[in-house]
Amino acid sequence: MDEQGRSAKRRGGERGALVDSPTRVAPLTSERNPPPYGAQHGQDALWEGGNGALPPRWRQYEIVDGNTYYHDDNLVMGSLNQPLPGVRLDEPGDLVVSGYEWHISPLGRSYFVNHNTRTTSWQKPTPERPAGSLTPECVMEGHSKCIWSLACVGTSYNIVSASGDGSIRQWKRYGEPVGKPWGSDGRAVGSMALSPDGTMIVSGSSDGGVQLWNIMEGKTARDPWEGHNAAVKYLDWSPNACEIASGSQDGTIRRWNPDTGRQITPPIETGHGWVEAVKYSPEGDKFASGGTDKMIRVWSKDGKLLIETKGHDDWVLSLCWFKDGAHMFSGSLDHTIRKWQSIDGNLKELFVLRGHTNAIQSICLSPDERHLFSASRDCTIRVWDLKTNQQVGEPLLHEDELYALVISPDGGYIASGGLDKKIYLWSIEAVLKKSGDQARSVAKVEEHAILTGDVF
């Protein structure tokens, strides 16, 4: 999650801090059409401040290893390249649809070059849904910006969603809103976690605030907790509900007493750069973290570093423990999911799941631990059979990049959300049935080929 609507300058020494970003300004004038195909060459920027300033509604951050990260708030997209006319902003493979490039116009508006049709467009390319692909049982609409986090509430199976529009909303299982949206004073809500007893929600905001909510009342339980000085990227409750861990772009993990809102221990300086994921083990005796330094670290309950390992080739964005507390999965910006086992004070990589074509933002296990579900910025959810370590069936499709995924406590359905501002509800039974039907269909084709001698 990236910050929305904040002052664009902080102390440059803070990890994950905004650095030397100019005051946001409105475009000098409107543009009806993007630059034509073939006009992607270096030229002077015409926005206020020219080449020495950022385009309107862009920000820049200093991240790990001294790199600078540039972010377009309009599209919720980031680049390691400075946004200037003629500079390609995406890396090959970043965009979901092949044959496209991301550029910026002289007046500071992002646009996309389609080499397949030799045209340009303001619209970001998104995949088309193939005929016959599985559709969600329900689509929930109401948010006006990206959905960053989802939770499923106990036996009611209600869905709670947190968004960049500054609201938290609750929905009945089949789409009906429950009460009014919960407000956060306009601050983007980028992370959220449900208490073990299902009565409270804790949320993290773009300004570093942490807020506790009463689900039944839809109101804050107490004043915001302050400590982080950058966006809160991830939150998790301990299994005994006695503490909450928050990970932030300021590079720290902080642990809070939910009854008092006070920090239990001094902040943990993780070394991650941005902390992208924090997860308590099922026993609550340790917790794991991942971030922009590509490392996974495991910490003791008192905050001591137990294990650190590097296996991914890019940022670690999501983590998920097995019930035994000795195995975990991690998802990364390198497009892979990896399974790990904790042995003799080390994390041993067991295998790698490949199939996604962009960052894996969220992963979760089925209650019986037979399947893993993953949501990616490639606009898909994929289901993995953990007996065979193979993908089950075809990917489930959204209209834009995915950031949030949650499974119901009974394992009956998953809910997903992201940049298309919609929550999709999927029946796991329908997903597995369709994949079984597809497998049987393939088997019949192969059997027919063998019987007729028409072997490939």
TrEMBL record:
SUPFAM superfamilies: WD40 repeat-like, WW domain
Keywords assigned: Repeat, WD repeat
Cited Gene3D superfamilies: 2.20.70.10, YVTN repeat-like/Quinoprotein amine dehydrogenase
PROSITE patterns: WD_REPEATS_1, WD_REPEATS_2, WD_REPEATS_REGION, WW_DOMAIN_2
Signal peptide interval: none
WW domain location: 94-127
One matching Pfam family: WW
Biased composition (Basic and acidic residues): 1-14
Region entry Disordered, spans: 1-42
WD repeats by residue range: 140-172, 182-223, 225-266, 268-300, 309-341, 353-394, 398-429
The protein's name: WD40 repeat-like protein
Species this protein is from: Rhizopogon vinicolor AM-OR11-026
